[in-house]
Structure formats: C-alpha cells, structure tokens
Specification:
The protein is an alpha+beta fold and 168 residues long. It is 48% helix and 26% strand. The chain folds into two domains: 70 residues, Arc Repressor Mutant, subunit A (Orthogonal Bundle), CATH 1.10.10; 85 residues, Beta Polymerase, domain 2. The strands form two sheets. It has a four-stranded mixed β-sheet with strand order 6-5-4-7. The protein has a three-stranded antiparallel β-sheet with strand order 1-3-2. The radius of gyration is 18 Å and the shape is elongated. This is ArsR family transcriptional regulator. InterPro entries: WH-like_DNA-bd_sf, WH_DNA-bd_sf. It comes from Algoriphagus namhaensis.
C-alpha cells in the first residue's frame, strides 16, 4: 500500500530502512544493499533530505544519513512503515509458500481506513496451506501487534468491498 502513495521504489526502500529502526547508512552501502545504482539512491537521498525527513552528517569524507526524529511527521511515517512492513512480510510469505494464492484482499475496518487493531484479509486460491497460514498469523501479531484474521475462498464475490493487495 505504501507503494501506491510513493511511486519511487528506491524512496520506499529508503523510508523502510530509516523509519523501521534507528538505522543510518551512507550512499555506497545503501546502493549495494538495495542493488540499485548510486545515482538513483543519491537522487532519493537528496529529495528526502531536502524535505527534512532525513538528516546528513559528515563522518570524515563520508556522508551518513538517518531519519530526522525531530521532523513533525516522524512518528506518523514510522507508524506507516511499521504497518506496511507487517502486511508486506505477511503477503510475501503467503504468496511464496502458501500454495496457489491468486488474490489477497484487505477487507473490514482496515480497508475502510479505520485502524481497529484487527486486519482482515481474504485469500483467494486453491490448496492453501492452512497450518502454515496459522503460524504466519501468529508471527505477524508478534511483530506488528495487530490481530490478523484470514478467510480463504475459492473465488472472490465482487459485491464485497476490499483493497486488492496481491493479484489481478
């Protein structure tokens, strides 16, 4: 979902890096970690620094970047990244190891923009490993402190409301 708000994949990676933990990094190590060109990382670092979201400090000849904790939106961005990471991790694991997942749809309060503490998701597909799904739900709760409820269906009822987060 974060990628629908932020169109640059490199910028998303930087936001995730700096706002998920108290991380810092310098240009070349970030480019290597992200498997991106130093130029694309430099452009995004400059944009985020100009916006005040990152601060750059000189350590010898190297510029080290980190999140600007005094930025007025620091806590909000950190919260968005945390939510994104939890869902993103869950979806990545579900899609890779769960079987034949055709679609993943966020439903309920979260789909309506209400953070009730429970994320409701519907998976559409066949032969989905329900035992592994239960394990992932527990791990996701431990990581993001949100209950995840997952319903598995063979096909999606288009009358239901939801946000498609995987599939077509």
């Amino acid at each position: 979902m974060l990628d629908s708000l932020v169109t640059s994949k490199t910028r998303i990676k930087l936001l995730l890096k700096f706002f998920s933990h108290a991380n810092s990094g310098y240009l070349r190590s970030l480019a290597k970690d992200f498997d991106e060109s130093t130029n694309s990382v430099r452009v995004e670092l400059n944009r985020l620094t100009e916006a005040g979201l990152l601060v750059a400090e000189d350590e010898g000849k190297t510029k080290v970047y980190k999140a600007n904790q005094s930025h007025p939106f620091f806590e909000e961005i950190k919260g968005m990244v945390s939510k994104f990471l939890g869902l993103d991790d869950l979806l990545e694991k579900v899609v890779k190891r769960m079987g034949n997942v055709e679609k993943a749809i966020i439903t309920g309060d979260y789909a309506n923009g209400i953070d009730s503490g429970t994320i409701q998701m519907t998976l559409i597909g066949k032969d989905i490993d329900l035992e592994y799904l239960d394990f992932l739900i527990q791990k996701t709760y431990e990581k993001i402190n949100r209950k995840v409820e997952v319903k598995v269906m063979l096909e999606w009822d288009n009358q239901q409301k939801g946000i498609l987060v995987y599939g077509k």
